[in-house]
Request: fold
Amino acid sequence: MQPGAGRTEATGTPSRFTDVHAHFVPQAYRQALLEQGINFPDGSPIPEWSAAGHVEALDELGITTAMLSASRPGVEVDGRPEYWARLLNESGADARTEHPGASGSWLPCHFRRSTHPCERSPTLWMTGTRTVLPC
Reply:
């Protein structure tokens, strides 16, 4: 069975379950959260996370694919939201590349604060392609 294939035990056939809300915590992001004193961002301790370990958990639970997103506080970690948007999106793309079909990711984005909507400029990175999307 391919990692991330998620099969039901009863039939051995591929499952078709998708987890549309799974958090991922790249090591650099985890370390930055801890350094900022953000120890319980979603009410629980920040876990150690790896793409391989995540895929193992998906297989155990019979889940084919998980859509990954960052836990709180998202890109607002330490005053460098553009940096964290890029790091999180690249980490999501790496997880997708390492384990095709097992994950996708929601695109964290940062909007510069402005009183005028036309002056807001998001920093977006597409999962897998690392292409900046202009706004």
